[in-house]
Amino acid sequence: MQVTDENKNRVASLVMALLCLLLQVGVAPNLGLGEGRMNFALVYAACYALSIGGRRGVLAGFFAGLVYDLCTTGPVGLMAMLLTIMAYVLGIEERNRFADGLPQCLVTFGLGCLAVEVAYHFAMLMVGQASSLTDVLVIRALPSFALTFVVFLPFGYFFARDARGGARTRRVRRPRGGGHYSTKGL
Predict the structure, then answer these.
(1) Of 39, 150, 182, 185, which is least packed with CB atoms within 10 Å of its CB?
(2) pTM of the prediction?
(3) Contact residues for 59 (Cβ-Cβ < 8 A; gap 6+)
């Protein structure tokens, strides 16, 4: 039986949104690999879509993308559109996909992240903020994908652990020996 605690979901979502916002504004512009930057809005949208999904996941993707667009110099609405589509695809089943295990979520997130980063930077080429296809793929999209994927790992681990109940389960102590007729204690 799967029991959902709505207040826990709301509080965790709010804390993750604030943490990702602070990291997007404070850390992401200052750390990079080549021209690639971390995308904490993508991490937030993916975590929300993989853990809750549905309409709320799509809305979370849209607003996370809008915040990302307002924090960067790119066209407003581009990342919002891409994250909305990604959140729809990742959260289409409307269930906690972290319960399936971290490896499946990593593969799903990796594919979605790569598609979003390539599409975003290709659009940057179309509007003139990149010089060539090599610049888009090698210097911008792949480093952004790698950094965002690495940043997703602790979030994914936390949500996968939380979905399994790892933070709240206690280990049951079993009595030593084989049971009632054990001679081990003699």
Answers:
(1) 185
(2) 0.81
(3) none
pLDDT band per the 50, 70, 90 thresholds, residue 20:
very high
Q: What residues does 36 pair with on adjacent strands? A: 33
Alpha-carbon gap, residue 59 to 161, rounded angstroms: 25
Rg (CA), the chain: 20
Give the DSSP per-residue string, 138-170. Answer: IIIIHHHHHHHHHHHHHHHHHHHHHHHTTTT--
Which of 147, 125, 158 minimizes the C-alpha distance to 38? 147
**The length of the chain, given as a count of residues:** 186
pLDDT in tens, 146-159: 999 999 999 999 88
* 37 strand-pairing partners: 32
Q: Are 146 and 114 contacting, i.e. CB atoms less than 8 angstroms apart?
A: no
Cα distance between residue 125 and residue 7, in whole Å = 43
Q: Between vectors from CA 117 to CA 59 and to CA 144, what angle results, nearest 5°?
A: 115
Region of residue 170 (phi > 0: left; psi between -120 and 50: alpha; otherwise: beta) = beta
